[in-house]
Design a protein that fits this description.
- The structure is a single chain.
- This protein has 5 helices and 5 strands; from the N terminus they run βαβαβαβααβ.
- The protein is α/β, with parallel strands linked by helices and about 140 residues long.
- It has one domain (about 5-135): NAD(P)-binding Rossmann-like Domain (Rossmann fold, 3-Layer(aba) Sandwich).
- Strands 3-2-1-4-5 form a 5-stranded parallel beta sheet, with helices on both faces.
- The longest helix has 29 residues, at about 100-125.
- About 30% of the residues are buried.
């Protein structure tokens, strides 16, 4: 049976497309987003279309203090972790507003590094698995 797949940033266009790719291949899907309620229609569609289990999870890249508990609480534990979340303010806004620039760094670098650190540790302990990171920033 194919490994369960965790998609961090599952509500993004690429996250949704990847859910179809892995669902079609028979993988159980763990879809994570800031607002998991927005994934309800995707969950239903994927379950019906591909006959695979799909669960939704609340994940906030900025909540790095919660990342260890988030990852440990996933059931089943994923064998493939895909990180596609990100934040991009308009360049002019980020140049003019330091808070916007630091928010982008916190989400796109610190948030990704934090959650993938926990994923890597769990996968290394199992001596199996894959991490896929995709960023446009």
């Amino acid at each position: 049976m194919p490994e369960p797949v965790l998609i961090l940033g599952a509500h993004s266009a690429i996250g949704r497309a990847l859910a179809h790719v892995f669902g079609r291949a028979g993988h159980e899907l763990l879809l994570a987003a800031r607002r998991p309620e927005r994934l309800a229609d995707d969950k239903s569609d994927l379950e019906l279309r591909y006959q695979v289990p799909v669960s939704t999870w609340a994940f906030d890249a900025l909540a790095v203090d919660n990342h260890a508990d988030f990852y440990a609480g996933l059931s089943p534990q994923p064998g493939i972790v895909i990180c596609v979340f990100g934040l991009m303010h308009a360049q002019e806004e980020a140049e003019a507003d330091w808070q916007k620039a630091t928010e982008m760094l916190a989400v796109n670098f610190t948030g990704a590094a934090s959650i993938l650190h926990h994923a890597a540790a769990a996968l290394a302990a199992r001596k199996a698995g894959s991490i896929i990171g995709i960023s446009s920033v």
